[in-house]
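Sequence, structure tokens reproduced for reference:
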Amino acid sequence: MSLVVTQSDPDHPVKRSPKDYWRETFAKQAIGRERDRASEEREREWAAPEKIEGLGDDAYWLGNRVGGALYAMKNKTFIRLSLGGPDDQKTKIDKSKTLARKALDRL
């Protein structure tokens, strides 16, 4: 398991904020824009993002046969919690949601 927290540093503004990244990554899935070649190749390995309700401001699960990652946005910060192992996807999602709630409560 790994946990990554992404947020802006107010002392070092950047051109692309965590919210910008979020929109670029997940809005395409929500509105069905055309995908570029890299996205098409990634889709062969990964299932389409699954919307996760009731977690942070917005959340998605991305999974494949080996593992998966839960992305959850709260305010201007998002987390990526990735899991591997022998569990099925539902179990991995449930475990990830439990851990993500704890992490988001600390933001």
